[in-house]
Amino acid sequence: MVKEVFESIEDYEKSLEERIQSGSMGYRKMFDLTGKVAIVTGATGGLGGPIALGLADFGCDVVVVGRRLEVLEKLKESIEKLGQRALAVKCDITSEEDVANLVNRTVEEFGRIDILVNCAGINIPKPAEEYPLEDWNKVMDANVTGVFLVCREVGKVMVKQNGGKIINVSSVRSSYGMPKNYIAYCSSKAAVNMITKQLACEWAKYNILVNAIAPTVIATPLTAHIMKDPELSKTMKSRILLGRWGYPDDLIGAVVFFASDASNFVTGQILYIDGGVTSWA
Q: How many domains does the chain have?
């Protein structure tokens, strides 16, 4: 894929003709992540692990991040079986010291950071009228403050490099409410969307592209309470046009797109991966 910026339409057309004559347009490699280095937070969760493996399958070296080191080490081994380098780092993303250590270790090991996927997040479902401030703060710390801190520290490296890709994991609940118990989660994911857009605005001049994916219900331990609630499960699935829950593999293509050269003219976007939920009100 051609990456240079053309001064004129004529320059672009000349390049196009040269590629035609060479017998290769170069597009087949636009999703290739060979030689790239990614950090995936929340890698011990139901989404982060598969996303880390998906990036590795496309040629990326991956730093897997979470609170449970034994789980991270197993994931590291799986990535290495795919032929890629990996590093497991135990980290509390709400701790400035831990996040700084994560970034330093990554740069020491790999020399750069090309991709960041902010996948860490929690939900504590309780009725809004009874929601404890303590639980509100826990959700906001993990889902908002943690995303900001990791973006900030990784962003410093990407600014020096003059380039990078950041993918935040949001949710359809950033724009659409839930029948019950989601006041903190929905609010936190709305904040993730705004972090995404604001960083895209501030960092475009450094060639740092910032986007988010916003899934509907993906079958993971985090959403098990929905599937176990007959009434809520029926309501939620009825909104999905494709008639099924999502699975972690449904997110890989979008993450690879945002991480790769295929998205080099895309920033500040929220991509809904929702089986059609947001297509109707």
A: 1
Structure tokens at 10: 């004529």
CA distance 98 to 89: 9
Summarised one tens digit per residue, pLDDT across range 3-29 is 567 888 888 888 888 888 888 888 889
Q: What is the CATH number of the domain that holds 46?
A: 3.40.50.720
Residue 281, domain member (yes or no): no
The tens digit of pLDDT for each residue in 156-177 reads: 999 999 999 999 999 999 998 8
- CB-based burial of residue 46 (10 Å sphere; 0-12 exposed, 13-18 middle, 19+ buried)? middle
In a domain, 24, yes or no: no
- Give CA–CA dist 253/237, Å, rounded: 22
pTM of the model: 0.93
121 found inside a domain:
yes
| Radius of gyration of the chain, Cα coordinates, nearest whole angstrom | 20
**164 lies in which domain range?**
30-273
CB neighbour burial string for 246-273, b if at least 16 within 10 angstroms, e if fewer: bebebbbebbbbbbbbbbeeebbebbbb
Alpha carbon distances (Å) from 2 to 17, 35, 274: 12, 18, 32
Catalytically active residues are 185
